[in-house]
Amino acid sequence: MDQQTFTFEGNSAAWYKTGTGKPILILHGWGSSSAVMTPLAKKLSDIRTCYLVDFPGFGNSPEPAEAWDVDKYADFTEAFIHTVIQKDSIDILVHSYGNRVLLKLLNRSIRDIFDKIIITGGAGLKPKRSARYYIRKYTAKVLKAPFTILPGKLREKGLESLRSTNLWKSLGSSDYKQLSGVMRETFVKSVTEFLDDLLPKIEHEALLIWGRADTATPLYQAFKMEKELKNGVLVQIENAGHYAFLDQPEQFISICRAYLEPENQQSI
Q1: Are 206 and 119 within 8 A, CB to CB?
Q2: What is the pLDDT of residue 185?
């Protein structure tokens, strides 16, 4: 697939297209890119025109000029649909972070453009927290407290010095530790927003495909999503984790094809 470029508010993004038929937009997860989703797109290319886009800050797309939240990525995706795909009806398949964007879009006027919806390892719901999480959280608060009473420039200088220490870095998640600057702030804006309250407002039918061994977005989140969505149906895949489409590609594709082209399939 040849790389093409889409520009949104001065930010350029790489995108790709393959296949024939009705359009399907495929959105990747955090720390990932279209490259991870390409094998999946190629296996659907005989029944769908697959559009893949690297979110700004991922894959071959440069980082945005400033930190984005989920709504800004939703703005970007909405503009991509209207400008590049230019169809009145499309399907969509999202993984992990892509689900955060999808949940936003399904609560906007653009929601009517979506037909078939596939969510796998979808992120965005409030997770159950361990005791270790709260220890790290309140340790961070204690470490930051002395700097909050300082005037502006001294406060920022002190916090910057704190963030460079090994102790502070040890408190962050593995994703957080690998980031810096704009994308670190973008990560914080994203993971601190929980979208559970959007689920009951969604009328669309949605197929949820989950790896039973998913630890990034555990199965209990899939159960909650199925329960809260008005028309959600969950299919579980054995011996698969967060990237179920890579762990069990043939089974994953069979499920997708049965849902996208039911007249050509006996059963899921």
Answers
A1: yes
A2: 87
CA–CA distances in Å: residue 28 to residues 17, 20, 190: 14, 21, 15
Q: Cβ-count burial of 260 within 10 angstroms (0-12 exposed, 13-18 middle, 19+ buried)?
A: buried
Q: Count of alpha carbons within 13 Å of 206, Cβ hemisphere only?
A: 30
Beta-sheet strand order (sheet of 205-211) = 4-8, 11-19, 48-53, 22-27, 90-95, 114-120, 205-211, 231-237
AA letter at 13: A
pTM: 0.83
CA atoms of 1 and 16, how far apart (whole Å): 6
* 73-to-90, 102, 146, 194 alpha-carbon distances in Å: 18, 10, 35, 15
Dump the DSSP string for 1-39: ---EEEEETTEEEEEEEEESSEEEEEE--TT--HHHHHH
Residue 131: pLDDT band by 50, 70, 90 thresholds? Answer: very low
Distance CA 220, CA 222 (A): 5
